Amino acid sequence: MNETVIFERQDEIGTITFNRPAELNAVDLQMARAMGRLAGELPNIEGMKVIVLKGAGRHFMAGGDIAAFVGKPEQKLPVIAEIIDHFHALILTLQKAPQPVVCAVRGAAAGGGFSMAIGGDIVVADETARFTPAYRRLGTTPDGGGSFLLTPLVGPKKAAELFLAGGTYDACQAKNMGLINEVAPSSDFDALVERFTSELSKNSASVAAATKALLKRETIAAFAAHLDAEKASFLACAQRADFTEGVDAFVSKRTPVFTH
User: Fold this and answer.
1) Labelling 227: which of 81, 96, 150, 174 has CA 20 to 30 A away?
2) What is the percent of the chain where pLDDT is above 90?
3) Domain with 157 in it: what CATH number?
4) What range defines the domain where residue 127 resides?
């Protein structure tokens, strides 16, 4: 059985690869559980100075696997809750990690993948990258910390636009908004990621950890509490008819018609 989340270590660089390329690296229960296990292992890894996140194949992560959202509430809610728990565990671990986290985004970064991507300390994208909050079309609210992370990056009015009225944004638009650091042509993207990881690995590990702790000093506890609020809101939405309509519309490749 293929691993749905791969962790590889090369010298001082640890790389996490989301590995469901045929499904655009969308998160199902198996993948979420792998994320949860990795969340418990990462803090115990010594000598690692940088963490890189990327997706296998042509995409970063297309959010949650819609197949997990189909069914009666009593069937789907426990699955959705468990997926969110594991997904949030990894996201919180990365926020708290002493190492700088570099998100290397190709292709789709949608829904939870959007939240995961913008949570990186450094975010770089190639010209194929597309950033899509996506939640509104499913009839639900954000998860993955996106509703906490977005406002400091783009401001409250732009954050409201992205989540409530927005669509898909290319890499240049994302850079202009402040979502990401750099954009490169696909042919130069690996070199761009290498440039950042090489520079970060030259830092004193203790100084980098202390700097990251200062940058997040006022936010980590609030972020953890916010993840709980996002989960509660998502599960509440998942019990409503509009969520069922959003999922059905997504599967049917049509525009949803919400009634509540």
Assistant:
1) 174
2) 96
3) 3.90.226.10
4) 5-187
